[in-house]
């Protein structure tokens, strides 16, 4: 494989590629290489090929094979590791591929690989549907789906991959394939959870669900002193709650929030993000046991549109800042975990800007997540009652070690309570042992490794949480 700066190798890039092709000295290159996490803003790919359709992707992949170079893939560019724009890389950028279609009768929804979650939501909501997906509207649907897809509707309907009907991909030998339960079934199994490693997806077809048009959503804020008592009893309070209700507890220094007094800004607080997609007149009954857990500073949950509900977290994950994250699954939340995370948030680095700086979040899962068999897809869910994440966001590069140290320290504190499996999209790469555990059983890992060897034997898709590297490390 060619390593280092290989831009001179790309002078003969095919002229029948229809989309823009950008190199470091080209006008517009700086804007196109930007990704949300500015921690990687110094990376300069050698070539960015901006595909307009699947034929363009085929052309670019075949060219890369002929040159024997690795391929980086950018769709939404939201992955926190910065894998979308590696230094000196050959990048196939699908972010211009924006077509979205939703059948108003059936809810069957097809999108191209450059569509963001907010864009998909806008299309499906025109007909009263939602594809269960993630929680930040600017996330790329492609990357989210290939890793599994978890969000506010997971408890009610399951993961994004549970709704994926088919996927069009370009393989690493330049073929165009459709994968589904009827075609290329084994590859389809692997794409649903380990897809970043196996092929370059160009479109996705989902079965959307009826949701909305009105839902209940918003924030309930509490003093930080309420966090431990509430987290100690929240599992019991939610044990019999309807699947239409999801709760997302977050501990953080308060960013500017609607209804929050100015003197509370940057003071640690405890927040419940609430999204309820059932009948609105049943909301209070669904929340009764949660309300009994503590007295809030403010309750900002109101009737809203689904588009408003599914962008609540946008304010906590803005583009244009340096970021680092860790996380995993929990089988339950209790007082011990509450005390650990309160201690971590109280001992946070000083903020470097007006937005959120440090946070620990828990997303309620269970419910419909367990309606699907663990081995039905590469994505793992065994025991996942909660998803937890710790996130740091800052601005100057000189704060990198301080913030990364805080995030990693929080991970180390929560890790003893975490399950061995996890959600590959959530965390920055934690190494080979972690990646092997993310997918659950050893049998599933061997199946994923076999798929990688079959469909990407040269590890051309290596700018990711990489199966080949993890497998080779285990062998050594």
Task: State the main characteristics.
alpha+beta, five-stranded antiparallel sheet, disordered N terminus, 476 residues, globular, 14 helices
Question: Helices and strands in order, then pairings?
Answer:
Elements: E1 21-22, H1 29-32, E2 47-50, H2 54-67, E3 72-74, E4 90-93, E5 100-102, E6 108-112, H3 117-125, E7 129-130, H4 141-147, H5 154-157, E8 164-170, E9 176-180, H6 185-194, E10 200-207, E11 209-210, E12 214-223, H7 227-238, E13 245-253, E14 268-276, H8 283-291, E15 298-299, E16 302-305, H9 306-309, E17 322-330, H10 335-346, E18 358-364, E19 386-394, H11 400-414, H12 432-438, H13 442-455, H14 467-475
Helix pairs in contact: 6-13, 7-10, 10-11, 12-14
Would you kindly provide a written description of the structure presented here, covering whatever features stand out?
With 476 residues, this protein is of the alpha+beta class. The protein contains 14 helices and 19 strands. The strands form four sheets. Strands 12, 13, 14, 15, 16, 17, 18 and 19 form an eight-stranded antiparallel sheet that branches. Helix 6 packs across helix 13, helix 10 runs antiparallel to helix 11 and helix 12 (432-438) packs across helix 14 (467-475). It is globular and about 65 Å long.
Q: What's the gist of this structure?
A:
With 476 residues, this protein is α+β, with helices and mostly antiparallel strands.
Mean pLDDT: 95
The amount of helix comes to: 25-40%
Overall shape: it is globular
The termini sit apart by 21 Å
Q: What Rg is obtained from the alpha carbons, in whole angstroms?
A: 22 Å
Please tally the helical runs, counting DSSP H or I stretches of 4 or more residues. Answer: 14
Uncertain residue segments: 1-6
**Proportion of beta-strand residues:** 15-25%
Given the helix and strand composition, which structural class is it? alpha+beta
Q: Could you tell me the number of beta strands?
A: 19
Largest sheet data: 8 strands, antiparallel
């Amino acid at each position: 494989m060619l390593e280092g700066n290989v831009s001179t190798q790309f002078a003969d890039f095919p002229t029948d590629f229809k989309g823009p092709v950008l190199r470091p000295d080209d006008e517009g290159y700086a804007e196109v290489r930007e990704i949300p996490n500015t921690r990687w803003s110094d990376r300069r790919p050698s070539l960015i090929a901006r595909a307009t359709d699947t034929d363009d992707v085929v052309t670019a992949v075949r060219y890369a094979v002929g040159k024997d170079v690795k391929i980086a893939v950018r769709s939404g560019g939201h992955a926190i590791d910065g894998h979308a724009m590696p230094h000196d890389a050959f990048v196939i950028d699908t972010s211009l591929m924006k077509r979205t279609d939703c059948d108003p009768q059936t809810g069957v929804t097809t999108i191209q690989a450059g569509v963001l979650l907010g864009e998909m939501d806008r299309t499906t909501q025109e007909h009263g549907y939602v594809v269960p997906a993630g929680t930040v509207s600017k996330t790329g649907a492609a990357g989210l789906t290939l890793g599994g897809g978890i969000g506010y509707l997971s408890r009610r309907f399951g993961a994004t991959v549970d709704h994926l009907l088919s996927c069009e991909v370009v393989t690493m030998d330049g073929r165009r394939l459709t994968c589904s339960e009827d075609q290329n079934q084994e590859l389809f199994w692997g794409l649903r959870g380990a897809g970043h490693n196996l092929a370059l997806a160009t479109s996705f077809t989902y079965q959307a669900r009826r949701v909305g048009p009105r839902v209940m959503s918003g924030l309930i804020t509490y003093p930080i002193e309420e966090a431990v008592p509430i987290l100690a009893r929240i599992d019991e309070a939610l044990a019999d709650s309807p699947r239409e209700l999801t709760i997302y507890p977050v501990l953080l220094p308060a960013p500017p929030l609607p209804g929050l007094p100015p003197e509370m800004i940057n003071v640690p607080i405890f927040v419940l993000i609430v999204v309820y997609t059932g009948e609105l007149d049943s909301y209070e009954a669904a929340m009764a046991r949660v309300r009994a857990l503590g007295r809030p500073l403010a309750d900002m949950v109101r009737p809203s549109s689904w588009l408003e509900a599914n962008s609540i977290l946008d304010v906590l994950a803005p583009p244009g800042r340096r970021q680092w994250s860790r996380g995993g699954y929990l089988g339950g939340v209790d007082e011990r975990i509450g005390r650990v995370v309160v201690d971590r948030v109280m001992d946070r680095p000083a903020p470097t800007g007006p937005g959120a700086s440090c946070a620990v979040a828990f997303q309620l899962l269970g419910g419909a997540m367990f309606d699907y068999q663990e081995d039905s897809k590469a994505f793992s869910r065994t025991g996942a009652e909660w998803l937890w994440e710790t996130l740091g966001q800052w601005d100057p590069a000189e704060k990198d070690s301080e913030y990364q140290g805080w995030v990693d320290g929080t991970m180390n504190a929560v890790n003893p309570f975490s399950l061995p499996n996890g959600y590959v999209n959530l965390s920055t790469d934690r190494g080979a042992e972690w990646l092997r555990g993310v997918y659950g059983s050893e049998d599933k890992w061997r199946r994923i490794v076999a798929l990688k060897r079959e469909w990407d034997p040269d590890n051309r898709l290596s700018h990711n949480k990489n199966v080949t590297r993890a497998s080779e490390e285990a062998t050594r």
